[in-house]
């Protein structure tokens, strides 16, 4: 039986091929574990503690879809390392349902759970969630008061009003992290105000010169609550900045921003306001006709189950 001899040159070729395969596997594995480029950048920066903390303020109230919507948002917080969630319940006390959502997402040290009840005179009795005054005023103001007492004055941070019925892309929080001290960042919002996209209009120098809003364009800042985020130092500089019941519906954004900035000082983000990274998607009102019939018989489909 003849011997098979492997020459040194063949051994060298095999070693080179083996190393090449290992490098490709490592490269692909790295991409799979770390995710898209924008997310890789976020985690790399977080290791050096250079990202500003983003305080996301979410007013919430009890309703059939509450847990589902908060669960969806909690998955964002699991992926973005510099988010701190201030969730404010419209209730006389904080609830186990909301707390369980936060804990199940592993956000043990990354959330603050608050509560404050909206005065009954600001609601249409028996028709909740239809309101005669703007929603979330008490809750957002309580969160701002908490921030002024607990946020680090010397550390750059961002404040974002993050409603629980919107859809957010991860890239939005990367963009938000670019907001400079003393500035308000701004970007487009999809599916809002009767338009496919509501956005700032920029000049050749990328300064905001107007807005394309169709609904009440005469507003000082005709934008959605999801269209901007604010450098925390501005809330220390202007302690009177707050939301108000005294303004018309749709003017809450203008009410808070009038204390903090002017249109020409806004910082355009999201590819100079050409990328849509947040959508004003509202959950369809839950239909529970069969449940109501069941309850009239003294029964419940969710007896002993948290939904």
TrEMBL record:
Recorded GO MF terms: galactosylgalactosylxylosylprotein 3-beta-glucuronosyltransferase activity; metal ion binding
Q: Does the keyword Transcription regulation apply?
A: no
- GO annotations under biological process? carbohydrate metabolic process; chondroitin sulfate proteoglycan biosynthetic process
What is its cofactor? Mn(2+)
Predominant location category:
Golgi
Its pathway, per UniProt, is: Protein modification; protein glycosylation
Which residue positions does UniProt flag as site: Interaction with galactose moiety of substrate glycoprotein?
198
Q: Which PANTHER family match?
A: GALACTOSYLGALACTOSYLXYLOSYLPROTEIN 3-BETA-GLUCURONOSYLTRANSFERASE 3, GALACTOSYLGALACTOSYLXYLOSYLPROTEIN 3-BETA-GLUCURONOSYLTRANSFERASE BETA-1,3-GLUCURONYLTRANSFERASE
* Record-stated family: Belongs to the glycosyltransferase 43 family.
What protein is this chain from? Answer: Galactosylgalactosylxylosylprotein 3-beta-glucuronosyltransferase
Identify the species of origin: Drosophila virilis (Fruit fly)
């Amino acid at each position: 039986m003849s011997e098979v001899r492997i020459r040194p040159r063949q051994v060298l070729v095999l070693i080179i091929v083996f190393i090449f395969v290992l490098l490709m596997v490592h490269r692909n594995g790295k991409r799979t574990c770390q995710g898209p480029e924008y997310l890789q950048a976020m985690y790399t920066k977080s290791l050096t503690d250079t990202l500003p903390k983003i305080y996301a303020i979410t007013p919430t109230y009890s309703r059939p879809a509450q847990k589902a919507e908060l669960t969806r948002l909690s998955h964002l917080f699991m992926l973005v390392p510099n988010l701190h969630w201030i969730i404010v319940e419209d209730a006389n006390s904080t609830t186990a349902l909301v707390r369980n959502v936060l804990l199940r997402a592993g956000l043990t040290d990354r959330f603050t759970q608050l509560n404050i009840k909206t005065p009954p005179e600001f609601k249409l009795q028996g028709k909740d969630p239809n309101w005669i005054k703007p929603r979330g005023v008490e809750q957002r103001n309580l969160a701002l008061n908490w921030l002024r007492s607990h946020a680090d004055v010397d550390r750059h941070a961002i404040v974002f009003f993050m409603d629980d019925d919107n859809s957010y892309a991860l890239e939005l929080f990367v963009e938000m992290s670019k907001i400079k001290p003393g500035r308000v960042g701004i970007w487009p919002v999809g599916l809002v105000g009767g338009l496919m996209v509501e956005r700032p209009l920029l000049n050749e120098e990328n300064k905001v010169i107007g807005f394309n809003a169709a609904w009440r364009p005469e507003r000082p800042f005709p934008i959605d609550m999801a269209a901007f985020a604010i450098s925390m130092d501005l809330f220390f500089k202007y302690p009177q900045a707050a939301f108000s019941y005294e303004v018309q519906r749709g003017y809450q954004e203008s009410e808070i921003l009038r204390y903090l900035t002017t249109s020409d000082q806004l910082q355009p983000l999201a590819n100079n306001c050409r990328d849509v990274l947040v959508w004003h998607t509202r959950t369809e009102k839950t239909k529970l006709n069969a449940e109501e019939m069941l309850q009239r018989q003294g029964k419940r489909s969710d007896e002993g189950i948290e939904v």
